[in-house]
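Deliverable D5.2: sample structural annotation.
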Amino acid sequence: MISRYALPQMREIWQEEEKFSLWLKLEILACEAWAKLGRIPPQALDTIKKKANFDVKRIKELEDEVKHDVIAFLTNVAEYVGPASRYIHLGLTSSDLLDTTLALQMKMASQIILENLDKLIEILKEKAAQNKNTLMMGRTHGVHAEPISLGLKFALWYEETKRNKERMIQADKNISYGKLSGAVGTYANLDPFVEEYVCEKLNLTPCPVSSQIIQRDRHAQYLSTLAIIASSLDKFALQIRLLQRTETRELEEPFSHKQKGSSAMPHKRNPIICERICGLARLIRSNSQAALENIALWEERDISHSSVERVIIPDSTILLDYIMDKFARVLQNVAIYPENMRRNIDRAGEIFFSQRLLLELVEKGLSREDAYRLVQEEAMKCWQENADFKHLVKHNPEIGKYLKEKELDSIFDFQYYLRWIDHIFQRLGIPVRSS
């Protein structure tokens, strides 16, 4: 993998200067290929390589006149090169230049995203290991279910992020294709050697077959992968937001010393970073829908996809890079409140031991239906009367027929819920440590 420090920052990948630099590099490589085939004289190639240059401002001036960005670029390059410029863009069509360059830009963006994923994977792995035995309430439908550990929650995110890395590697592989096959993909005015030469130099694979363009299912997969990664970050950030609610306050995103939460209420500590992540994830998902719409084009090509891609691909990669960085910072500095976790567990009045009690009664010979009825009756009293579940169970004479007091005491054991945590962590490859 290329080091991030050897790459432009994400936003710079999509700047005009970078795009035109890649266009020029591709055009010169195509000239080299033609020269190897004897189509361009060596002297002309030398002139092109020495003099070829561009000026962004001048290209924009020309584009205002000709209404075509590639023609404006080629005209500007010709102003630097002189007569030898007639060999530039030989046999090519605009999409040969545009699509192959776009593949390079998306590959560069992939490397940054993959490095972000690696960073996030390491943070989650460490957080999972640190909090392996930090007991907290597991919730389903927003209601107390059974205890879990905070480490298990982080481990769940860790494994999902690893899957996202696998998806990103595959999306990067699938977008790493170039094409220099002419106006309708037939190489009518080209030689396949030109495509092969240029793609090899750019570390791309020639498309096995193309029309005027690289087919947009590749780009749709890429944008869909970005959307899945963003959706995972949305999920993780949403969980932190839910656990930061005043009534819960088990986790809290960082709040700096001079930070203000509200213009009206000085007490506020709002999860604004996590909310921002959730909001921007919606944009990335909506962009993936536009990428899917771009797959269906008229015959060998129309340009209905072109204007869309100039927005959705830079925006999605930049936004994802941004929210990945933000979430990594949140995660590194998230406040964890184990005492609140235990207090919230205690608020349930030990009602969450209901399933274990149910199973013990079944083990003693009751039908599941009768055992469920007995346990649910006491659980409903616990909800309605804010009573202690263990106390209610111990004073239920029908339950007492099957379970002695000592047996009942053994049921109400918090560590029971964590007895397989080490097994899960070992399966995930997360170091098992005491905490």
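Annotation notes: Strands lie at 135-140, 143-149, 177-178, 205-206, 251-252, 335-336. Residues 11 and 215 are 25 Å apart (CA to CA).
The annotation will be released with the project's public dataset once the embargo ends.
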